[in-house]
Amino acid sequence: MCEICEVWTAESLFPCRVCSRVYHDGCLRRMGYLQNDSAVEVTETAHTETGWSCYYCDNLNLLLTEEEMFSLMETLRHCKIIPETCLTLDDFLHYKHLVHKQQFERPMAEAQEEQAALQFSALDPDKKGHIEWHDFLSHESIQLLQKLRPQNALLRLLTAKERERARAAFLALDQDGDGFIREGECRRARHGWFRKHQKEMPSCSVSISHVGPMSESSPTSSGSSKSQKTPAAAEQEEARPVDWASFLRENVAYILAARPNSAALHLQPPPA
Ligand SMILES: [Zn+2]
Ligand SMILES: [Zn+2]
Predict the structure, then answer these.
(1) Keywords, A to Z (predicted)?
(2) What distance in angstroms lies between residue 141's CA and the mean position of ligand 2's atoms?
(3) Rounded distance from Cα 9 to ligand 1 centre (Å)
(4) Residue 2: is its pLDDT beyond 90?
(5) CA of 96 to the centre of ligand 2 (A)
(6) Ligand 2 center from residue 52 Cα (angstroms)
(7) By three-state DSSP, how is residue 20 classified?
(8) Would 61-148 and 158-195+229-265 be classified into the same CATH topology?
């Protein structure tokens, strides 16, 4: 049954990849959720592996409570970020520095600034040199959820479809069926949630630099570890057993961050 008109018809309905809602394209267009040029995109995406998120699920900002939203807006105001505008790398870093200083009362370390720059490129997949307001807002919303809510509360935000997909990913990794996977596999799974829709297929060489850490999940690189620890320590950590409950807990923020349709990565996983 279509979420908007509440009528069931046999004509094709678009399923949301996150929740159980389905929609008529005509209804989406009538409500202004589909612009003319994105209509074709939705029709193409909704039935692919990538899938399509409906307007409830696409907007991570909707997950915030009124108080959390207020606190986010206060921070933005304090950092002189103007809503609805694009941010350059300088704007983004300046903002991250201020927020960090506010929270920890000391400047950001070099490694953290590097991490912020990486996050910026993940939010700017087309390398336009700026990030869209909505991508920035989604990124900040998920950051705030991570900061303010205990992981158990985040788990309650997952839909049945998201749990099912995570379960399937876990079972595929647990090849001997003992209920445990290795820490390294758990970390690499984080990159796997982000199946982003790409307008044009990038050439091979572009795609590797473009997706960055996602290439870690490819079978060829899955055995390598970029960790700077001693090989033995890294190996030990790689091998730490992770059960289903911890797997879900450690991945929940990334599963939520993968919801928006935008090609941007709203929460860049640390290098695997
Ligand atoms: Zn309808
Ligand atoms: Zn949905």
Answers:
(1) Metal-binding, Zinc, Zinc-finger
(2) 18
(3) 8
(4) yes
(5) 30
(6) 8
(7) coil
(8) yes
Each residue of 135-176: pLDDT tens digit?
999 999 999 999 999 989 999 999 999 999 999 999 999 999
The string of pLDDT tens digits covering residues 184-227 is 999 888 888 887 765 544 443 333 333 334 444 444 444 444 44
User: 63 or 78: whose pLDDT is higher?
Assistant: 63
Ligand nearest the Cα of residue 161 is 2
* Ligand 2 centroid distance, CA of 215 (Å): 28
Among 2.60.120, 1.10.238, 2.60.40, 1.10.600, what is the CATH number of 61-148?
1.10.238
Please give the Cα distance from 265 to 211 (Å, whole number).
Answer: 9
Tell me how far the alpha carbon of residue 6 lies from the centroid of ligand 1, in angstroms: 6
CB within 8 Å of 182: residues ≥ 6 apart: 238, 239, 240, 241, 242
Residue 8 alpha carbon to ligand 1 centre in Å: 8
Instruction: Tell if the pTM clears 0.70, that is, is over it.
Output: yes
Q: What's the CATH number for 158-195+229-265?
A: 1.10.238
Question: Are 266 and 202 a contacting pair, CB within 8 Å?
Answer: no
Residue 146 CB neighbours (<10 A): 15
Summarize pLDDT for 241-253 with one digit per residue, the tens: 999 999 999 999 9
38, HSE (Cβ side, Cα atoms, 13 Å):
11
Ligand nearest to the CA of 53: 2
The bound ligand whose nearest atom lies closest to the alpha carbon of 21 is: 2
Where does the pLDDT of residue 117 fall: very low under 50, low under 70, confident under 90, or very high at 90 and above?
very high
Domain locations along the chain = 14-57, 61-148, 158-195+229-265
